[in-house]
Amino acid sequence: MPVFSQDHLLGIKHISRDDIELIFKTADSFKEVLQRPIKRTPSLTGITIANLFFENSTRTRISFELAEKRLSADTVNFSAASSSVKKGETLLDTVNNILAMKVDMVVMRHPAPGAHTFLAQHIDASIINAGDGTHEHPTQALLDAYSIREQLGENLEGKRIAIAGDIMHSRVALSNFFCLKKLGCEVMAVGPPTLLPKYLTKLGVQVEHDIQKALQWCDVMNVLRIQLERQDTKFIPSLREYSKYYGISKAMLDQLDKEIVLMHPGPINRGVELMSDAVDSHHSIILDQVQNGVATRMAVLYLLAERRKSRVGTA
Ligand code: CP
Q1: Sequence-ordered list of residues with C-beta below 8 angstroms from that of 302, at least 6 positions apart, any chain
Q2: Which of 10, 53, 167, 286 has its CA 20 to 30 A from that of 134?
Q3: String of DSSP letters for 221-237
Q4: What atom in ligand 1 is closest to the CA of residue 109?
Q5: Within 13 A of 94's CA, how many CA atoms are on the CB side?
Q6: Domains in the chain, CATH or no CATH each
């Protein structure tokens, strides 16, 4: 039986193609569980998981909570807005206090890139990165690739995936680049030059500035929003101008002489990067991505719990 190679999920950069394939295979089993009338397994009975969100989240937080409940784990939720972080407590003190209550695993979203790596070096719990600043969002990339696999088949070797939008400020983009390249995809980044970082070619990612050319090239178009909250200077003249050159409508997808899969990690800014008719069209698998998030996160939690069991002999 193959085992996950890491004690934590800090980023896609740190895991192998075999790890990714193992997560997908495990997610397939959990997806089957989620179709049953009683959508629950006892796999994580006796495990306590703390969900620590130092940044806002809708999809990731709910998806992890649901995944944990479906696996019969005990969960505690922490939100920075209503915590003693506001009184000046450090990240390490906050987490150590929570761990003193005998927590086995920590799911954390934090605005500081690398916060999870720091924690993993200082505490004994298994750490799962639910987003660290502009760095990585590994479970989003895993559920994205899992959703692509459902559309295009299990072998993604040579499939053409374009990621459009604010690549510069996106943790989803970086995790997707690592994941898709490990799976053998051809990957393209699309957007205005000011929103495309210089490191792309080093990762083997093609660069394109024309959204029409990118749509013609790709099998899958994964669209990101403009992250105004992460931009301290102006990278585009206005959202209106961005939308004029990069906004995707249903008509643009319909007129292609091929099938195309449309994705978005959410939250969507309707009328900016995607027109409403594209979001709601038959090309879109955006809600499938959300649904697959639960099975994919169940797989990650389960594999890390198994790994922890073999490492510390508890759980
Ligand atoms: N895709 C994603 O991370 O969404 P949330 O910010 O709502 O969790």
Answers
A1: 26, 30, 43, 44, 71
A2: 286
A3: EEE----GGG-SS-SSS
A4: 8
A5: 24
A6: 12-137+290-314 (3.40.50.1370), 138-287 (3.40.50.1370)
HSE toward the beta carbon, residue 235, CA cutoff 13 A: 19
What tens digit of pLDDT does each residue of 77-108 get? Answer: 988 877 677 778 888 888 888 888 889 999 99
CA 266 to ligand 1 center in whole angstroms: 6
Nearest CA residue ID for atom 3, ligand 1: 60
Q: Rounded CA gap, 127 and 139, in Å?
A: 12
- Decide if 290 contacts 132 (C-beta within 8 A): no
Mean pLDDT over the full length of the chain: 94
Q: How many angstroms is it from 248 CA to the middle of ligand 1?
A: 21
Question: Using a 6 Å CB cutoff, which residues line ligand 1?
Answer: 57-60, 131, 137, 140, 265-267
Between the CA of 311 and the centroid of ligand 1 the distance, in Å, is 31
Q: How far apart are CA 107 and CA 128, in angstroms?
A: 5
Quick one: DSSP state of residue 274?
B
**Residue pLDDT, tens place only, 255-294:** 999 999 999 999 999 999 999 999 999 999 999 999 999 9
Asked if residue 1 has pLDDT above 80, the reply is no
Q: What percent of the chain has pLDDT over 90?
A: 83
Measured from the Cα of 58, ligand 1's closest atom is 7
pTM of the model as a whole = 0.95
Burial class of residue 122 in the structure, from the number of CB atoms within 10 Å of its CB (0-12 exposed, 13-18 middle, 19+ buried) = exposed
